[in-house]
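Objective 1b of the project was to move from sequence-level analysis to a structural picture of ligand recognition. The entry below was assembled by the postdoctoral researcher (A.K.) and checked by the PI before modelling. It contains the amino acid sequence of the target and the SMILES of the bound compound, zinc ion.
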Amino acid sequence: MPHEEFERLNREREEIGDNPFANPRNAAAGSLKMQDPKEVAKRKLDCFLYYIPHNLEGVKTHYDALKYAKELGLKISDNMAICRNMTQIMEYINDWNRGRRHLPYDIDGIVIKVNDLSLQQQLGFTTKNPRWAIAYKFKAEQVETLLESIDYQVGRTGAVTPVANLKPVQLAGTTVKRASLHNADIIAQLDVRLGDTVYVEKGGEIIPKIVGVNLHKRPPHAEPVRFIDRCPECDTLLVRKEGEAAHYCPNEDSCPPQIKGKLEHFISRKAMNIDSLGEGKIEMLYDHGLVKNVADLYDLTYKTILGLEKVIPAEEGKKEKRLSFREKTAENIIKGIKQSKNVPFPRVLYALGIRYVGETVAKKLAAYFKTIDRLIAASYEELVQVEEIGEKIAESVILFFQKPIHRDMVERLRTAGVQMELTEAQPLEPQLLQGKSFVVSGVFERHSRDEIKELIERFGGKNVSSISSKTDYVLAGANMGPAKKAKAESLGVPIISEEEFEAMISRKG
Ligand SMILES: [Zn+2]
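Corresponding predicted holo structure:
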C-alpha cells in the first residue's frame, strides 16, 4: 500500500469516525481480510512481481527474465541491480538504507539472489526456501533523546502499559515524542530513570521502543522508576497475577477503557456483527454518556445519535477537526443494532465477553443448556459435565453471573429482543453431514463464509483448511482460486455449489 493511498484511507476513516490504521502494513493486512472484494478493490493495493517460475527459451539469468517480464507489461520493480561481489552488494544495501526514505512505499530490506539460472537450479530449495536467495533486513534506526516523564495507559483488557514521554526527536522520517516501555519488568531490566538519556528504535510497530540508557549522561541522584499501584483511569488498586508481566486493573465493569473493550468485542463480526459501529463510533457514544454497557446500545434511537459530534483538537500545523454522525451513518447504526437481535444465542453468549468463553465454548454451553436461564442457574458440577468445559471455565461462568450488574444486563438485552435461548428457528440440527469433511473456498451469494462453516458444523460436518484425498467435498463460491480447483479435480474431490450444499442440509435433501 503506497504512502499516498495509506494517507487517503486514514483521512477517510477519520472523517467517518473510525480509528486510523497505524501503518501501511496494517492497513494492507486489514484490507486483505475484508470479506467484500468490492471494498478491497477501492483500496489501491499494489504489488511488484519478482520471479518467473519457469524457464524461458534463451533466457539465462534472473535479471533478464525480469526484464523480459517487464517488456511484456508486467509490474516489475525498477530498483534492482547486478552486483559482482560482496563489496558491491554492501554498497547497494547502504545506498538504499538511506534512499528508501524517498520511495513512495515502505520497504524493510533487500533480497539478494544468484543471477545465473543454471546455478539457481543446482542450488535448489530447502523444504521452505530457495538456497539462491536471501533477505537482508535493514537494521532499525536508533537515536538518543531525553526521557521527560512516564504515563500509564490502560488497555481494553485492563492491562497497564507504561509509555515514555520523550523530548521530540527525528527518527526514520517522523518526529518521535513517545515510546513504549512495555511493563514493570522491562523498566527494571533497562533500569530506566526519569531524566535519563535513552536510545530509541523503531521496530515493526508504529510505536517506537526504548532499547537502552546512555549511563554517561545520567543526572546525579536519578531514582529508579516506581510503577504506579492504582489505575490512572478509575483509581482501583492494580493487581499482578503470578507469572504475568503486566499489571491489571481488576475493575472490569466500570473502568472506561475496559468498558470500551467490552463494547468493541460485543459488536465484533463473530459476536453480534454490528459492522455499522466501529471502535471510533463506540468511543463517541461512550464519551457522550449514551452507552455504558452493551445493553445501552438497544436504547439508542436515530434521534439521540443524529448529529453527535466529536471535536479533535488542533495539532501543530493542522486545523481542529469535527466528526459527526450524519443521517446515513445514524440510520445504519440503528439498523445494524436492530438486525443483531436475530443473532443466534450461541453468538450472543460469546458476545457477552465472559472470560475464557470463546466461540467454541459458547457453542457447547448453548447446545447443552439451551437457555440463558438454565446456564445462569447451573451449578459448578453441572458445568464441568459439559464436554470441553473445565474448572477454569466453569468458575469464570459462575463468577460472571453472580454479579447483579451482569444479570441485570442480560435481562435488559432479553427485553430488547436479543436471543437468549436456542429457538425453533435454530434447533440442534439433525446430523446430516456426520463424518463428512469440507473445504470452503470463495465468496457466496446467500451466506457469508463464516455462516457456511457454522452450518457445516451445526449439521455434524467438519471444516478442514486444505484439500487432500480425504476431503469429501469442496464447497466453491465465486472467485475460488484456480489452484484449489485444479487440486480438487486431480484428487477427484467433488466440487459443490452453495445451492447443492443447501439441498444437502435441507430435510428433504
Ligand atoms: Zn481502571
